[in-house]
Design goal:
Rossmann fold, globular, about 400 residues, single chain
Length: about 400
Amino acid sequence: MISRKIIAKLSLLLDEFPAVVIMGPRQVGKTTLAFALGQTRPSLHLDLELPSDRAKLADPELLLGAHPDKLIVLDEVQRAPELFVTLRSIIDQRRRSGRCVGQFLLLGSASGSLLRQSSESLAGRVAYCELPALLASEIPDTSEELDDLWLRGGFPQSYLSRSDAASLRWRRQFISTYLERDIPMLGTRIPAETLRRYWTMLAHEQGQIHNAARLAASLALSGQTVARYLDLMTDLMLVRRLTPWASNVGKRLVRSPKVYIRDSGLAHALLNLPTREDVLAHPVAGGSWEGMVIENLIAAAPDDAQAYYYRSIAGAEIDLLLELPGGQRWAVEIKRSSAPVTSRGFHIAAADVQATRKLVVSAARSTFALNADTQNRPLPALMDELMALT
């Protein structure tokens, strides 16, 4: 099992809050992580997709209240929203008796609905933590492993598959299962084939400015419907909507979001790109690499960091702008090349936003200066810097 760096943060949150919510798409490793945490303290695990475990919760107050000294793990908790009111009552009762922390660990695959349900019932009693796919800082630090992560994506079963072909089969099954079973289970009535076409279109446009009107025309749908699809995929943590930095700099700026399939392996599966060579030969290669780097850097950044992109109408652009604690503002240019060269537009954009640091993340494996104020940093090394800020 790959050691996940987030486990230390989760342990800390459980020592500070009565309930902790781990959010992440299916198969990203939430259950495995919960079992690992369960090894450190007495625990009871209930999977709400299992009829047998749901039957145990016929009287939730009786069952949950009967284990005051255990961490109770509720897996796929969005399937039983009625439990949140009971959890609030139990937490408040225990607070009055002196127990305040480490009581419930809630796992969920749908961020929007889960947040709404828990925030209404557990306000002030719960902390949230998103579990990303495997990160570059969690795998062996070699070019080959990083390329595998890029090609296969970070879902553990995909990344750890015995071959690229086996990994691709897993990802194709994952996509089909999401479309045909998991999304309908959320009560969303969207034809699976239509949603697959939309998802594939997003993969083709990895890292491009989102043009809802053009996508709607291609799908013969309304712009409102396409916007609903994007909201759904974002809530399921399958798509990243990166918003533009739009502070008043006296320039005309692009205002639409950039959209990425959050897992590069899923993007490659949607585009039927089975090998690294196939990806490199495809026009999506640069956008796919950019998306993977952005996901890793956002996951490594402190919780209160803000992530944007910047683009002016004149063409000045920053791929990722991170606003960090203490007023730091990092401008990050992302290149697939192992011999990166920064553009004039990047330096103009960095001056526009008053960046405190200018960085390039490329396929190069070492740190070196590109000019007097711009540095190339390998992805794992830059992630370690960001994690040290937390």
